[in-house]
Amino acid sequence: MMALIVELVLMPAVAFVVGLAMLLMMRKIAAKIQRRVGPPFFQPLYDVVKFFGKQTQISHGLIHDVGIIVAVGGYIAAETLIPVPGMTGIADRTDVITLIYFLMVPSLGMALAAGQCANPNASIGISRALTAMLAYDIPFVIVIFGMSWMYGTTNLVQMVEYQQAHGWGLFQAPLLAFAGLFALQGMLGKQPFEIYVAPAEIATGPMVEMGGKYLGSLIVMQSFSLYTAGILYTTLFLGGGVTWIDFLVKAFLVVAIPMTIAFQFPRYRAEQMLGSLWKWPVLAGLLGLAVVMWS
Amino acid sequence: MTLLDGLWLASALTALAAGLFGRSPSAGPWLTALYGVQFLLVAFMGPLAYGADPVPASPAFSVLGYGLSWQFTALSWFFAVITAGAALAAAWFMSGAWGRHYAEQGGDLRLLQLALALNPSTMYVLLASRDFLSLFVGWELVSWASFVLMLAAGGVGVRWALRYLVYAIGGAMAVMAAMVLSHALTGSFEFGALAAVVPDLSAGTLWSLVILLSGGFGVKMGLLPFHLWQAGAYAETPGPGSAFLGAISSRMGLYAMLLTLFGVLGLGTLKALSIPWTPLEAHELLAWIAAFTIVLPTFTALKQNDARWLLAWHGIGQGGYMLMGVAMGDALASAGGLMHVFNHATYQAALFMAVTAVVYRTGTADLNKLGGLVTRMPLTFLVLLVGIIGLAGLPPMNGFVSKWLIYRALIDDGQPLLFVAAVVGTLGTIVSVYKLLHNIFLGQLRVEHESVREVPGSMLAPMLALSLIVFVTGLAPGLVLDWLTTVQRELGLAVLAPTLGGVERPDGGLDMLWVVGILFAGFGVGALIFLAGGRARTVHQLDNYAGGHFLTAEVRYHYSDNFYAGLMHRIGPWYRGSFQWLQDSVVAATDLLAQAAAGVYRVVQPAAWLLGVTVLALWWVAA
Amino acid sequence: MTLPPLEIVLYTGAVSLLIIGLAGLVMGDNLVRLVLALAVAEAGVNLLLVLSGFRQGAFAPILLEGRVPGPMVDPIPQALVLTAIVIGVGVQALALALVLRVRRAYGTVEMRTLRARLHEDLDAAAGLPPETSRNAPAVERPA
Amino acid sequence: MNFVVLAVALPLLAGFLTPALGRSSRALAQWLGWGTLAVCIGVLWVAWARLDGGTVAIAIGGFRPPLGIVFYLDAVALLFGLAVPLMALLLWPREGTPQQFALTLVLTASATGLALSGDIFNLYVFYELTAAASFGLIAGRGTGAAQGAALRYLLLSAAGSVLLLAGITIVYLRTGTLNLAHLATLAPERLQDPVGLAAFALMLIGLGVKGELFPVNGWVPEVYGSVSGRLAGLLAGLVSKLAVLVVVRILVLIFPQPEAAQLMLVLGMLGIVAGELAAWRARDLRRQFAFSSIGQLGIVFVAFSVPGEAGIVAGLAVALHHLLVKPALFLLAERWGGSIEGLRGAGRGHWLASGLFILFALSLVGLPPLPGFWAKLLTVMGLMGLGTGLAWLGALTVMAATVVEAAYLFRTLSVLLAREAGYTSPGPHRGLDLVTASLAGLVLVGSVFALHPLGDGLKAMAAQAADVQGYIRTVLGDRAVARRGQREDRISEAHPASRGSDRPMGRADRAYGWPAGSPTRGARS
């Protein structure tokens, strides 16, 4: 019991640290592509501390605050559902389906907070964000189904065990892995699927009214989301991790791919986003599904 | 005098009292107490859900040599407890301020009270039926009772009620055909007699039975393509009535299907019945119909601009989950499908009530004419929030558990397309209900709603109670799943072994106690982090970033119309050719035929028909 | 079936009368003619009925004292046909009376006009707007 | 039991007296009519009580059957016989002239005769008398529309009578008898062929004019649209049923071949479709009910077309239900006649009338446990029990018609009960109409509580009516029954597979020679 509690505390903490590092990596990649130097190593941490410490903190009402708490808290809780090397948290008591729906809770929190801001730009942003969710989740659930069927379990711990015994999912179901990566691009909200932020057009959408600790919380949330996406993909396709080192290498690699792709692209309109996410990854996913189920 | 007799008596008394005293708004609390008595009587039958012997009714009739008898079993009880709860909540909701308001607006409160009271009382008759004849009697009574409730408000509702009536009678006739077919096969209306001959029946006969029964009962459930009546009929019913109807009324179809298709024919029969030239079997066909019922109505809901219509369309879609779960038939799926009946009743009633509360205060359910009400009606907002989380099937509410069970079973059964359909339905629901919440409660408060206040306690209490149930059964789904094991045993389905928190299995289980616990712990930590930041200052809603322009009261802008513009740009064209064409063409064909029929009676010489038919008859005789 | 030639002729005649009468009833338009057609049809069927008792060369079925009863024709149809004729006459009289009444009410003895006026009357009594033809002009034609 | 004849003779006599009496005192004529009807009811009631479920044949004038004409009394005959004066009393033309009283009495007499007679030509005579009386009653309203409708009805009906008489002639040619019981003994060998079937077809169509059989019911909307509600109720409720009863008697006793029933089934089905759909489109209440009555009569024909007891039970149930409901509805339409759209809100404030309308509509549509449901259920059960494709289609038609029926009845109701501001009510219903309709409503509701005995009673009645041997035995004695039995045996030996089907009697016909009629043969054989 004690060990479990330690795990439950440790897992989000690790996630926070690694997530900030991923944030840093993201900005470094962007800088490299744009031939800039990029921020210093501790910049993400500085940012968070700065935002939380600001004098001017503007709240737009209770739900604004609650939404932010739900967004951050939901991710903190979600980290305990994905097994990492040496720690399983409550991954054994839940499964990948729970995790997917769990991950929607922070989004809902952010949507609440943005909605309460009473800024039309925020509402437009949320409408686009939810549209994006509808777009990327369809290929993603096809992937989830395929992998669960292949591994014969929805338990993430067992998935890792299976891959460590029989080889990575990436090699057994490459089409599904491709579809998953494509969906990941949307899930992280990176170009070309970042219409919901669209800073020049709707003034960063959901974030338009956020400042101070609100924006800081959103940065924390983003770092969590990067981490979660990375390790979830690693767990599903790359055999999880035996040790922290190979686990983190894989996770960073996974996150690096969308980042690298992102900065090569312009921004898609909402319907273009739907079109591309419902076409290629869904086709690949269904094909991969057929291969998995009939072989 | 058994408990069932008592329940019938109590419900009849309630209807009588509603008819006598319903006109006066002050009778509301007393009527609510009577509904409470009904609920208690159902609760006293609780041991049924844990395997106690069925509770029979004392009256038994014999007509034309066929006996009718009634009894409550675990299946009946499960549906009855939902019915009683929904009726109690609806009656409570209208017992005070709402009822007075309705009467002041010129509504016929007595009629509404009576219609509401008739619904549960007829449902208790249906739920107790144990042969085809009593089933049909109960079925018709329930259909007519809900017709009365839909009619209660008059106005636009009448048109929808009439449309419902046509569908309902059509469905009832299909049921009657199935019942008479069964009689032709066995010479009796007993379920047992049919069950006994099922192994000897030809595939054609079985298909006829399956199609007639599922079609007939499917009308009430709003299964595709018989769903077109439901949204309008439920949405245009006065508030508490629509809460009751949305919660349980169409589930009677599921009950009757369970009773006949699963209880009598048996899941094994459905599984053995394959569709020629396809790999599908009868139960998969049902699951596919369910899948379409999930997806199409859900996305129709997404387009609605009226909160009540939006909810009603979602009600149709959620019915698909129930059928899908039950049709898949294994322990997890059927438990999920059945539990969804309970879950849906709880959150749907709460949602309709919350919307009704908004209408009560603002006078409109038009999603383009509201906004920002969270600061004025925070508790109603809370109820709606809890409700939509349940409806969307997100943790920690109960809707998540039932859907999880269904998803998990679909993975077990290897049904990827059904799985995707189910998830797509959920995603569509999330998208749609956020619009509902946002357009009513978030964004900018309209000038005319500045003075809106929270609704009074008589309306809040049932809503909050329902929300509490939504949360508690999400936290500890085992409470409900325990009942369902008995129901599964009764129907001859595989039996689930639930824990308090859900299901324990090594290859991916669910323990909601942990999930919810962790989630709230996360919120706690999140709150700590949040509070670690500097103290925030709350500003006026118009004090926000507007691109260098100052927003004033004259230019309030709440982004609500065509909320998902981008999405609609892509999927808008797909709405064409939803099943409306089917209904339209049936009506058109009937009208054409009717014109021809009327033409028969407009001829100059009616004797021409006489000569014609004589010649034809003689020709036929000679041939 | 071997029938004596005379009977074939008689039956053919009776059936023809019936058919002519019914055809007249359908095809005629003048009410008086319709009544006459009805009379023809009734005559045909009455003839048929009386023929059913007919046997060639038989006597009338009257038992008179001192006469040897040879083959007799069937008396029942004759009794029946009398009744039928009486009824027929009564109905025709009633029909003619009604024709007169109709002429007084509507000023017509044409079935087509009667039907049109009757239905107009019925619609008017029910408070319905008359059913106009789709081809009828919406307003009065200019003179 | 010979006193039963009074039930026919008395109203006839009174009918001829009334106009003369009416010249001096209208009230006296009215009282005479009422008294006569009351006596008729008494007579038939006593006969019902004495009969006690048995059957009796009464030879009129002392001539023994098959030579003499007979009245045949069984439960069905007496039930309908009893319904005639009862309905005539309830739907008495109160505001009418003495002539109308007389015609009503004549109608009563002849309709009672239709119910009781056991002789096919006698039936024809009563049928014609009924027709003549109803023409008079229809035209008696005096409006141009009523007279036009009466004339058009007359022409159609007279053409039907010609066909009926032609059918009777064929039957007589074949068998040489007109007594139903005697025909029943001879039918298996002489009428089981296309010619016999043709005779049935002619009689069916002929009788169908009054029985509102499709498509010879063109008169229905015109007549019901132009006469008073009471008369429409009498014609739709009662007279049509008696015509159907005659058809059923003929069908059961003389034409057991399935083709005959099939013909009736097909025409009945078409009638349901045409009637209900036309009612769906009807724009005024009275004609809506008229068309609806065509549809209901279609169901009656369809129900009776099911062979054996099942069909008769179902048919009786549907017919009796309609007998009760339709006149009451026509009475309600008396005040609410006219365009349906014009009735917006007319039912509000008249809660008794509206309630009755709702009750009748519910029963017509078949809400259990109202009697209409059981009637419909019996019909569908009978049809589906047959298992043939045509019967299935029939059942389907009945059920589809229910949907249409529900659609238009409740559309009308919703208009009646609509909340409409500024509507001027056409005034309350006349008290008597309302009382009569309430009576029907009470019987309807009361029968819900007596479903069990009613069901048993109907079954016993139907068993009696379906019992051909019993009919023959009652009228002709035991020996005739044995003879029919022998004949049937002989036929089934000769054509073991095809009895009652295609044309089994061709050779037997020739063996008997033709024409078969002779005055003495019938009596001897």
Number-wise, the strands of chain C total 0
Rg of chain C is: 24 Å
CATH fold assignment of the domain at 5-56 and 78-125 in chain C: Helix Hairpins
The level of helicity of chain B is 55-70%
> What's the CATH first level of the domain at 5-56 and 78-125 in chain C?
Mainly Alpha
C-alpha end-to-end distance of chain C: 70 Å
Kindly report the oligomeric state of this protein: heterotetramer
Q: Can you count the helices of chain C? A: 4
The portion of residues forming beta strands of chain B comes to under 5%
Supply Rg of chain B: 26 Å
Query: What is the N-to-C order of secondary-structure elements of chain C (H for helix, E for strand)?
Result: HHHH
Main sheet: strands, sense, barrel of chain C: none
Query: Which two protein chains have the largest interface (Cβ within 8 Å of the partner's Cβ), and how many residues from each?
Result: A-B, 89 and 81 residues
Number of strands of chain B: 8
Contiguous low-pLDDT stretches of chain C (5 residues minimum) are none
Task: Give a concise summary.
The complex is a heterotetramer of chains A (295), B (623), C (143) and D (525). Chain A is mainly alpha-helical and 295 residues long.
Give a quick set of tags describing it.
heterotetramer, A: about 300 residues, mainly alpha, about 70% helix, B: about 625 residues, 3-stranded antiparallel beta sheet
Characterise this structure.
The complex is a heterotetramer of chains A (295), B (623), C (143) and D (525). With 295 residues, chain A is mainly α. Helices cover 72% and strands 1% of the residues of chain A. Chain A has helices spanning 2-33, 43-52, 62-78, 96-102, 104-116, 120-151, 156-166, 169-172, 174-187, 199-202, 212-237, 244-262, 270-293; one strand at 58-59. Chain A is globular. With 623 residues, chain B is mainly alpha-helical. Among the domains of chain B are: 281-493 and 557-578, no CATH class; 589-622, no CATH class. In chain B, the strands form three sheets. In chain B, strands 5-6-7 form a three-stranded antiparallel sheet. In chain B, a hairpin with a 2-residue loop joins strand 5 (498-499) and strand 6. In chain B, helix 1 (3-21) runs antiparallel to helix 2 and helix 6 (132-151) packs antiparallel against helix 7. Chain D is an all-alpha fold and 525 residues long. Chain D contains 22 helices and two strands. Chain D has helices at 6-24, 26-51, 75-90, 98-116, 120-139, 144-175, 180-190, 194-208, 219-226, 229-253, 258-281, 285-304, 308-336, 351-365, 371-386, 389-416, 431-449, 451-466, 468-476, 478-494, 506-512, 519-524, and strands spanning 56-59, 70-73. The longest helix of chain D has 32 residues, at 144-175. Chain D is globular, with a radius of gyration of 23 Å. The two termini of chain D are 28 Å apart. The model of chain D is unreliable at 491-525 (pLDDT under 50). The chains are: A mainly alpha (295), B mainly alpha (623), C mainly alpha (143), D mainly alpha (525). Chains in contact: A-B, B-C, B-D, C-D. At the B-D interface, strand 2, helix 6, helix 7, helix 24 and helix 25 of B face helix 6, helix 8, helix 9, helix 11 and helix 15 of D.
